[in-house]
User: Which sequence fits this backbone?
């Protein structure tokens, strides 16, 4: 009898406790503006932590080849070892750092190029703008990977070449979008009014056009970062570009596919897909105005 | 209609001219090394000079430029720097397998995209639609080479039913057709999610239009409305998108062909990039550029035929 009463009491106590917790997480979170931010920035942050802080936590060297070759995941090597007996987890971290440290600067350069070219084509007289767009059409007619492969074959290899090539192939679509947005803004009433009041092109750009296209640029910056990661990984997969990126790790994993070494194929591929998803989700979140 | 057609053809011709000029610049960026890569690092300056004259390199840029056009208009793309074969022949040999892969891959991609997009569009923002959407996003963010790697891991290592790579001879017999299956499935999975997503959005938009309500009020069944009225209207953006996404699909095709060691244009491209075989590289660049321009033109014309409003944009 008494034990029943205590269990009843305990139930009530824990019931109230759990209700409080669930209330906190499911009711109060609506007032936490930052909660949404964490939800959308969480995956990019996790990936960045894995690549750049991971090596300080998991201290095995990515180049030490003293373990058994092609060993399945075990406690000593949680992601297995590759065909030269190097720790795969450490290599994944370094591969990510190599990929991101080329892709992020490339994306920044591409955004600047695309926004600059698009605004130039939007500002220029109609004939010049048309010509600039025609040139862009010719550039867009080439698959980016074709241009990348040509450039990687003709230029001396190195991180600067990779970065520049990826930047050069990633900006076309943004230029097109920016130009059409500027052309649309140019004919709006406020633009006419500002020009009537004597505003010059620089003033128009800084005060009227850039604030109006900033969200477009932010969304596309995220998408361009995704494109840059994809291009770099494809380049690595084809045997060009940075020597130790996720793409080239997948290439060397596929070379020993006959050994059934799934731990050399699935993790790098999933990390590439995960970072592409993170980039496109960030772009979508910015487009819907939930972050940034 | 004719005026629109003429203007589009003129634009395509201008784009083509820019492309040819671009490849000319690229050829001469790599130019000095063409003779060197044929003769090797120990060639004498005289030999280099005479080969350069033979290849019509050196001399005034204007003459070289007109020579470049003249050569291209006669279908002469030069010789491979490595095998010394005619570039046009090498490209022609590689184009067949790629065409087979494209036909099979894009055909099945169109079917998959229509089915998935229709399901997603009809159940837009409902549980079934969300599942379709998640599937599309998962396929969309997966790079082509990873799709290829997973497919060959599953279907030729875990369940050894299909060859993981190699040539075969597509179209010759049934055993060789098996080499085509995994690359074609990769191209299909690569090309369909974007198309499915756009198709779903336009199906959803069309379903809330007035003519659907009118047709419903007239007593038409849902299936009749969907297939007779909604689908033709919703397919319009798909035509443009397919034309525009050809370069993106080719980028994916390059890595898929390399992953399966499939003897097509994509593998030829990456091999000649790795081997610094510039004539072949530029030949492929020209071919792909021309194909893309023609593809875009064809998509535009198809759109103008499907939708009279598009003729006046």
Assistant:
């Amino acid at each position: 009898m008494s034990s029943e009463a205590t269990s009843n009491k305990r139930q009530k106590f824990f019931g109230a406790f759990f209700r409080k917790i669930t209330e906190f997480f499911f009711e109060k979170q609506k007032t936490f503006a930052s909660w949404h931010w964490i939800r959308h920035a969480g995956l990019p942050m996790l990936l960045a932590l894995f690549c750049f802080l991971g090596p300080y936590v998991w201290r095995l060297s990515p180049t030490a080849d003293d373990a058994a070759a092609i060993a399945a995941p075990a406690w000593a090597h949680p992601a297995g070892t590759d065909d030269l007996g190097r720790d795969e987890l450490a290599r994944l971290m370094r591969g990510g750092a190599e990929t991101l440290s080329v892709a992020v600067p490339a994306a920044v350069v591409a955004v600047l190029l695309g926004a600059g070219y698009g605004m130039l084509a939007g500002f220029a007289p109609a004939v010049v703008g048309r010509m600039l767009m025609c040139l862009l059409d010719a550039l867009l007619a080439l698959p980016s990977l074709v241009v990348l492969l040509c450039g990687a074959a003709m230029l001396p290899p190195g991180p600067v070449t990779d970065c520049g090539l990826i930047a050069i192939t990633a900006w076309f679509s943004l230029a097109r979008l920016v130009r059409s947005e500027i052309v649309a803004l140019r004919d709006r009433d406020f633009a006419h009014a500002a020009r009537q009041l004597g505003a010059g092109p620089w003033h128009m750009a800084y005060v009227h056009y850039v604030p109006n296209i900033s969200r477009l640029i932010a969304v596309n910056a995220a998408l361009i970062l995704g494109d840059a990661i994809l291009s770099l990984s494809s380049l690595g997969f084809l045997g060009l570009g940075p020597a130790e990126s996720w793409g080239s790790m997948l290439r060397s994993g596929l070379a020993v596919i006959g050994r059934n070494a799934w731990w050399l194929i699935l993790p790098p591929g999933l990390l590439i897909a995960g970072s592409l998803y993170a980039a496109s989700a960030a772009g979508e979140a910015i487009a819907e105005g939930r972050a940034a | 209609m004719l005026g629109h057609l003429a203007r589009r053809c003129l634009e395509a011709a201008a784009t083509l001219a820019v492309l040819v000029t671009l490849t000319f610049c690229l050829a001469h960026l790599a130019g000095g090394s063409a003779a060197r890569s044929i003769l090797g690092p120990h060639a004498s300056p005289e030999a280099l000079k005479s080969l350069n004259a033979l290849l019509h390199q050196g001399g005034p840029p204007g003459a070289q430029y007109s020579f470049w056009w003249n050569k291209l208009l006669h279908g002469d793309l030069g010789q491979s720097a490595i095998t010394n074969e005619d570039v046009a022949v090498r490209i022609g040999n590689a184009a067949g397998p790629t065409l087979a892969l494209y036909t099979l891959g894009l055909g099945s991609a169109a079917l998959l995209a229509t089915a998935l997009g229709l399901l997603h569009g009809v159940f837009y923002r409902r549980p079934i639609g969300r599942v379709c959407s998640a599937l599309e996003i998962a396929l969309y963010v997966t790079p082509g080479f990873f799709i290829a790697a997973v497919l060959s891991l599953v279907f030729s290592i875990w369940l050894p039913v299909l060859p993981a790579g190699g040539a075969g001879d597509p179209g010759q017999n049934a055993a060789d057709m098996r080499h085509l299956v995994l690359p074609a499935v990769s191209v299909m999975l690569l090309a369909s999610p974007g198309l499915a997503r756009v198709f779903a959005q336009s199906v959803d938009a069309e379903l809330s239009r007035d003519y659907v309500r009118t047709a419903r009020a007239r007593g038409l069944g849902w299936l009749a409305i969907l297939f007779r009225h909604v689908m033709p209207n919703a397919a319009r953006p798909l035509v443009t998108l397919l034309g525009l996404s050809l370069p993106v699909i080719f980028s994916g095709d390059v890595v898929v062909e390399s992953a399966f060691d499939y003897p097509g244009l994509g593998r030829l491209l990456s091999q000649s990039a790795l081997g610094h075989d510039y004539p072949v590289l530029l030949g492929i660049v020209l071919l792909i550029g021309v194909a893309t321009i023609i593809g875009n033109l064809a998509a535009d014309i198809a759109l103008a035929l499907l939708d009279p409003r598009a003729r006046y944009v």
